[in-house]
Amino acid sequence: MSASNNSYDPVEVTSLHPDEVARMRDEALAAIAGAASLADLKEVRLAHAGDRSPLALANREIGALQPTARADAGKRVGGARREVSEALKARQAVLEEERDSRVLVEEAVDVTLPWDRAPRGARHPLTTVAERMADIFVGMGFEVAEGPEVEAEWFNFDALNFLPDHPARTMQDTFFVESRTGGESGLVLRTHTSPVQIRALLGRELPVYVVAPGKTFRTDELDATHSPVFHQLEGLVVDEGITLAHLRGAIDAFVEGMFGSGLRTRFRPSYFPFTEPSAEVDMECFVCRGASVGDPDRPCRTCSSEGWIELGGCGVVNPRVLTAAGVDTGRYSGWAFGLGVERTLMFAHGVQDMHDMVEGDVRFTSAFGMEI
Amino acid sequence: MRVPVSWLREYVDLPADVTARDLAAKLIAAGLEVETVDEVGADITGPIVIGRVTAIEELTGFKKPIRYCRVDVGAANDSGDPQYIVCGARNFTEGDLVVTALPGAQLPGGFAISARTTYGKVSEGMICSAAELNLWDDHTGIIVLPEGFAEPGADAYGLLGLREDVLDIAVTPDRGYALSMRGVAREAAAVYGAAFRDPADVPTASQASGGGYPASVADPAICSRYVLRTVTGFDPEAATPLWMKRRLALTGVRSISLAVDVTNYVMMELGQPLHAWDRARLRGPIEVRLARKDEQLETLDHVKRTLNPDDILITDESGPINIAGVMGGLATEISATSTDVVIEAAHFTDTHIARASRRHQLSSESSRRFERGVDSALQLAAATRAVRLLAELGGAEVDPGYTDIGHGVAREPIPMAADHPGRVAGVDYPRDRVVARLREVGCTVVDDEAADSLLVTPPSWRPDLTDRNDLAEEVIRYEGYENIPAIAPRAPAGRGLTDGQRLRRTVGRSLAGAGFVEVLSYPFLGRRDFDKLQLAADDGRRSALKLVNPLNDDEPLLRTTLLPGLLKTLVRNVGRGFGDVALFEMGLVYLPGADAPEKAPILRVDRGPAPEELASVEAAIPHQPRRVGAVLAGDREPAGWWGPGRAAVWADAIEAAREVGRAAGVEMTVKADQRAPWHPGRCAALYVSVGGVTRLVGHAGELHPRVVQEYGLPARTVAMEVELDAIEAARTTARAPEISAYPVATQDVALVIDASIPVSEVEEALRAGAGPLLESVRLFDVYTGEQVGEGRRSLAYSLRFRAPDRTLKAEEIATARDAAVAAAGERTGAVLRG
């Protein structure tokens, strides 16, 4: 458009005649009204409102008119195109409405059809419950310590103040490993997670705040409540000014985290070579909260109507243990506990029989999913 | 230890309203593990009275002789008339006092007594035996009471102690003193603040030792005190009184004869094991010494035992007569004719007794007490108590002379800061409370106000009290564990889980998310497992640690591979009707070190180990890497209304391994390999790169058909096992990629290639040739058939190109593609399919 176009066509453009414009418009409106589906309407839109539609072509001719006639023709064609566009919009709305009410209904499927194409897996509940137990303490700032399952007797017994003649050190209780030549190897399958106490004290800077979940072994035949392979969560704190009160606090925090708030705990004096004083720790039954005690009409399966559930053993770390691990007992003291992972799972989730936890039946494990 | 409450009350003034359950709760809180409160006789109800047999009519014509008795039960039957009772026992005569259950009574086992017709007579009740009343174990006949025991008609409940509450206490190894009425009574007195009367507080002897049965102790280290007392003129026919029989029965001891019963009774009362010999059977002086090599003794249980040089023996001129503290010899046993009895009360060294008991697999009431520690000052009192009872009940004469060797175990005072128990508990205990509690325990406490520390000498019956923390425990438990407050620990800021610990969780979740179910199988294997896995004779996995004492003799080895456990679990699930199974396990394997020392040393414990000492222990501990294994059988994806299922194949096993790699963010490369237990043509070796060095981390693929057969697995079971520790070592820090927003250009190429060339090599060549513009390569089709020729296949790849800074021109794309194809041709002989 470098210069104005003065050489217009003097011939009248028929397509811009009012009758012709009206005809094109009417044709378009009729086609729109006749479109039965959104797909039809899409074709109609192309034919009557697209770039090559009669009205669009007519619109291009306006420039060929005498300047005086242009405004008039422009108004005429523009009005017709607007009408067509509005009719399209209206018809589009009508057809969409129709589709929504009819076609989508026709396309309905039975959403209750099963779609179990992807196999479902699960983690073992002993794994996930041990993680959960440990995480309660990790949340308090503890770290997770580890040790080997085939362990030196010194770590498993001697350093923990088990004297050479302690009954636990017999083949009645402990799996012993043969040396290469069939003699004594000084190695056992660890009977508890407590050797990790010694490893933590030898391998870490003081103060030490750790838990150690893991596999443990004793020569018990598998039955409803025993397994030769089982799991414990060890806890160990060695710091300055540590007392039994801190141990109670930690146990209470564990019970709250694992079983819910408002449950009482109790310590009963007991004996372990590696703690002194020692205690067995019980928690109030989280199912009956003691209501089943002495009430034969309301027996409690979880606590056998005793009102209390035994969680494990604990106590103040025997200073002899600290000495064996090279800790200055004049300055440091500590506490330790050992909680049964199987027991925790049995109580928290109603597992009745140890066999279920060791057999690997997919029905059992799948019931617990990915987390517990 | 079974503790009848009425017996306990003899030594401690418990409030009258204290029930057995109250007492149990208090004792539990103080540290005695009362397991049950046994309400003995609670199932006996109704009229049970003393009767006198006034006439006996012998009934004949029955299979056994039967008596029809007239029994005077006083006014107990309301009428005052005699009761007529049929009785099958014969150990009584007219005039005897007996125990009579009248109609309306109920005996143990729900046995209701009523008047009924039997042997042609109406029997109005029952004359009872001890067993029928659960009094003690005696089936020889009815109870005949001594004359003067009670009047006919008297209520039998109180007289015989038909009902009794018995506490059953599991005594922990540190509390030997609680294996006696004396010890439990002392605890009860302390927890109730009640007066305690020590049953060991008996006048012992009016004269100094001497003139007793001759004896010597070879070494005070094996026996710190040795006392012998003798009675003469003992009546071997004398019966054990009913009260003693009853108490012994309640504590779980069978009545044998008066002489033996007295030794057991005093043991239960005081906690001192005693032994009784027939003096006539002893040969010369007694010597207490260690056994000599190959000495033998036939013990009371009729077993001939070869003695160990660590056994403490009691010997006379004939040789060994007792394994000290464990069991007596048969030859010197007290008998039905013994009239002169020697009573031994000794203090043997606990560790010797514990070892002897274990060696000979003989756990006796005596050894249980010696192992846990017996009061080292009790011997003379206990022996004296026993001989007095023999005199009183068996008509014997106590020999005034006696033997008393040694002084027991001297106790050194333990210095303890008065506030130490408080600092252990986290409670402020006043100094005078601490002192008072220690004295209740029986300690001698020197409390010098000027000194910081108390000087505490534990009593002779508490050998377990050796350290200040032991003393602290005594104070704390008497003050009440329940009174210790709970204070949340304040740990310093922790670092959370380690990378390795988090990785394990991620791997577990990834595999579970991929449809695998976790199992935790036992790590025990047998040689047979290695055979079943088709491992060659020299396969390193056969070198496994062996247990000395396996639970199952067929499985004495510790696993060197996770697969057997997984396969057995898979078989179990298939057997239970789950044919489509995908399982995984994460756990340690135990690999003996070839150059590990023979034995892990036992280090000293009186100080921390030196670095080289610790290293010597660690060197003996086998390598225990963590592995992940997985097995699959049946359909990986089930059939359904959508169409057919998809069977698990070798590739699913490799994919499971890759899943582990992905969880760690580690790329795994795959090469064909041949390794048991896998199918030789369907086994992949898996590699990672650790710091630029390629490292084998495991294998995956289809199992060998022989393995499938040996384990009874579903056909074409597939498996993988990788070493998680090695994968963890290959982890690198992920770097953010540059994301280009310019358009992608996709080029598909089909390459024809010798079918023996692994596709991984082709892909590697394409990548190398295509250069930096290549964004990704994906194999989308593999074709074999006539069109490509025998032994060849066509691989269809989709190559995606993109530049970081511009839209690629058609020529650039074609050049990169051609370079990729050229590289593939050069390295693998691939040609572009025409």
Oligomer: heterodimer
Spatial strand arrangement across the major sheet of chain B: 28-31-32-38-37-36-35
What's the story with the biggest beta sheet of chain B?
7 strands, mixed
Write down how many β-strands of chain B occur, each being a DSSP E stretch of 2 or more residues.
42
Uncertain residue segments of chain B: none
Q: What is the total tally of β strands of chain A?
A: 10
DSSP strand content of chain B: 25-35%
- Count of domains of chain A: 2
Strand composition percent of chain A: 15-25%
Molecular structure report:
The complex is a heterodimer of chains A (372) and B (834). Chain A folds into two domains: 99 residues; 242 residues, 2-Layer Sandwich (BirA Bifunctional Protein, domain 2), CATH 3.30.930.10. Helix content of chain A is 39%, strand content 19%. Chain A contains twelve helices and ten strands. Chain A is elongated. The mean pLDDT of chain A is 91. Chain B is an alpha+beta fold and 834 residues long. Helix content of chain B is 27%, strand content 27%. In chain B, the strands form twelve sheets. In chain B, strands 28-31-32-38-37-36-35 form a seven-stranded mixed sheet, with helices on both faces. In chain B, strands 3, 4, 5, 6, 11 and 12 form a six-stranded antiparallel sheet that branches. The radius of gyration of chain B is 42 Å and the shape is elongated. The chains are: A alpha+beta (372), B alpha+beta (834). At the A-B interface, α5, β1, β2, α6 and β3 of A face α2, α7, α10, α12 and α13 of B.
